Amino acid sequence: MRQSACKDSDPKLFDNDTDAQSPPYEAKRICDGCQVRAECLSLHRYDHYGIWGGTTSAQRIALRSEHTRTHCPACVGQLIVAQEDTEVCLSCGISWISNVKMVKL
Questions:
Q1: Same domain, 14 and 60
Q2: 89/48 same-domain check
Q3: Residue range 64-79: mean pLDDT, rounded
Q4: 52 and 11 within one domain
Q5: Do 44 and 77 fall into the same domain?
Q6: What would the pLDDT profile of 28-65 be if each residue is shown by its tens digit?
Q7: Does residue 72 share a domain with residue 59?
Q8: CA–CA separation, 87 and 27 (whole Å)
Q9: Do the Cβ atoms of 62 and 81 come closer than 8 Å?
Q10: Residues 6+ away with beta carbon under 8 Å from 94
């Protein structure tokens, strides 16, 4: 049975994702290795506050915006955040310029 990595963590770590005094680094680190990260993000995709599925509220807003790719070209992950002219895969961490088309060789 898969369990969340945060189940024994202090919930306050995940409360605030915008406070400059206590950035969400620790909460995001916990989420990085979580077995249920994608499910967590899916359940909390529209939440406007806190860290869910390793994302901040700003990242979830970007996730909901339109982007051209549905899968990461490296890991085939589906957790893609579009920011201005780049896209970032939250599954593996790579980024790419979104207006450049991938060419299969």
A1: yes
A2: no
A3: 73
A4: yes
A5: no
A6: 899 988 988 888 888 888 888 899 988 888 888 777 76
A7: no
A8: 22
A9: yes
A10: 72, 74, 75, 88
Is the same domain home to 59 and 82? no
Q: What is the pTM of this model?
A: 0.58
Measured between its terminal Cα atoms, the distance across the chain in Å is: 40
Domain, as residue range, for 97: 66-105
Give the type of residue at 21. Answer: Q
Compute the distance between CA of residue 89 and CA of residue 46 in angstroms, rounded to an integer: 19
CA distances from 51 to 19, 24, 28, 73, 78 (A): 12, 7, 7, 25, 18
The pLDDT value given to residue 61: 79
Distance of CA 4 to the CA centre of its chain: 15
Average the pLDDT over 73-98 and give the result.
Answer: 79
**Residue 80 parent element (H or E):** strand 80-83
Q: Tell me: pLDDT of 11 over 60.
A: yes
